[in-house]
Fold this sequence. Notes:
Chain A is α+β, with helices and mostly antiparallel strands.
Amino acid sequence: MSTRRLSRREFLKGTAILAGSGLLAACAPQPPAPPTKPPAPTPTPYITPVSKVEVEAPVRGVSGKITIWGWPAADKAYESFLPDFKAVYPNIELDIQMMPYADEHNKLLASLAAGAGAPDVGMIEINQIDKFVVKGGLEDLLQPPYNAGRYEKDMVEYKWRQATSPDGRLVAFPWDIGPATFFYRRDLFEEAGLPSDPEEVGQLTKTWSGFLEVAKKLTNPEKQRWAIGNASDIVYTNFAHRNFFDEEWNVVVNQGKAVELLKIALEARRAGVDAKVSNWSGEWQTLLGQGAIAMQYGGCWFGGFLKTWLKPEDVDWSGKWGIFEVPEDPGQNWGGSFLCIPKPAKNKEAAWAFIEFALATSLAQNKMFLAVDYFPAYKPAFEDPLYHEPDPFFGGQKTREIWIDIALNKIKPFVTTPMDAQAEQIFMSYVAQCLDQDLDPQEVLNEAAREIEIQTAPDKEEALKLKMGVSK
Amino acid sequence: MSELTRSEAQRVLSSRKESTLWREIQRNWVAYVYISPFFILFAIFGAFPILFSFYLSFHRWNGISPMQWVGLENYVRLFQDKLFWLSLKNTIYIGIVAHVPMLIGALILAFIINSPLVRHKDFYRTTYFLPIVTSSVAVALIFGSLYGVRFGLINWLLTGIGLEPIDWWGGKGQWIKPAIIILFIWRWLGWNMVIYLAGLQGIPNDLYEAAAIDGANLPQIFRYVTLPLLRPVILFTIVLSTIGAMTLFDEPFILVGVTGGTSHAGLTIAMYLYNRGFNFAHFGYASAMAYVVSAVIIVASALNIRFFGHGRVEQ
């Protein structure tokens, strides 16, 4: 009898321990969140401080409290220029509320639908901007009192266009852009007997066939080494949230560039140079951290990721990375965000003062860039010498000059539509299917085009109504 | 006088039919106030969304712009949508392949644990129940490292004994459904086992003893005593499972993300609904899908009750 009681007590102890370990497991860190740029890079110590200060304060004397929504690291970005803002607008009080990336967009959408509970300043990411451009609910910033039109010439052109609705409203104000390149590990290139200097690597990878040659030399599955994470990135270079439709909004994913790139990606997959992991998965992060992936495609913000959360704690990556432009067509962009003023906002004047100060002054844009690596869409900011500094993390390569060059000179006009987010999801699903099953690229993309046509039809109809100025 | 009372009585009688309920409410208003919170909350968070979503299913609505009446357009598009049929097929496939072995396994486990031979019953009960209370983030992390293609524990074991590693997420997606099913069974086996265990403990011991005295062996006891008496509980778990299977979301979502992996092999109907409703703000379309799913659940549950509930023991 007594032994039985004892075992029962032991059992209780056992369950307590198990429950405790369950709790511990529940506290485990979250897996990396969606693409683009949710996690918070910490301030980068190796960049020279801002040298040029110019504040073009418009209307002072604005006052009141404004609520600002966003996701990290926007809070760190805002903190970086807060004293300067306070100096110009001493009477504006900021209530900065951060939430997870997806929640922010859902809450913003819900508050707009309800017509209540909206913040004064909302943040919208490029993959979500479609949802907002065809709808009402956000202030048209081209109208008085905002008159944002005067900043059009200062902003990177395509960024401005993405926030413009089919009927010509500017629903959000450009924050940052994502000029995109390949990032590569210098030490892994050397190990494979390849040159590691950015100039020479750039020469070798000028064409996709050159890129594939390099990739084959880098790959060695015996040693757990692959050139790239996933071959679908090769296609994605030209289709990160754009180019699914032509100027007339006809689906064009089954012609030209898309087919060409998918053929190259399929060649890469057949050659076995990709690790077949999907970007942002836990396994991808492990492989990258262990030096099993030698090249990775990403927007310039990816540099911030490498410096912070992607880098395993026990390794020193400083000087080990470099960047080179996308073969054959270097003018690429991936990612970027906007700020908006919802119609139900209570203090629109102060909200606009904040947006203007944060996004349309070199001072705030560059301070934010230094703090969190959000690359300004505001062109005058590029005049700062910091953009011509070498970055020790990239072995002294002048990476920012390359990104500016891409944003200003290399990006060719491209088409964005309000149907892009859905089109991208369908398109990339078919790309994966083609690579995974070794199917004919042209046939797969024909099917993708058909499917995009069908699935985006209602949205296209709505957007066209706006475009044609037909009011319901 | 008598006439007056007569007509009075008649009036009272006729009005009584209509107003008894209202009078009862008036008389017992305090009690109704006490039970009202449930009904008020249900009206706001239950009934209203259910009805509104039906109304919404005939509209095109992106959440902000005014709603547009489109009649049956959403339903017509839905029935022509390849992904809808694929996700429905996936859902039913995963539902059946995951639930049949899981329920049988749970029943057998419960029977074993309930037998007087097993000691430390509470320990087993708790251990099997633990996966349900584990946070889905932790589950995602652990199964992510189990199913890794290059650095996964399962593939490491397979290559260790000289087998080919499994390409979990690639190919035609043929390994995605098994991966989901394994995770699902791991997660929900204990839940059903605990329900069965509760049912088993409600069966009086003398029935077993009587069967044993009559010379029944263990399988016979299971077949002729346990199973018939457990029928209501089994029906209950089957109906719950039908609903659970049709609304399957968590497990595939944490493993393969919102598109369901390559060739949409892991896309379930709930994920597709979520994707269209909340990712692309096609609320009318998603509502139409919700109503079609509800119809499927109702039909499936009715079939289950007919099939398994026949001759059931009244509780």
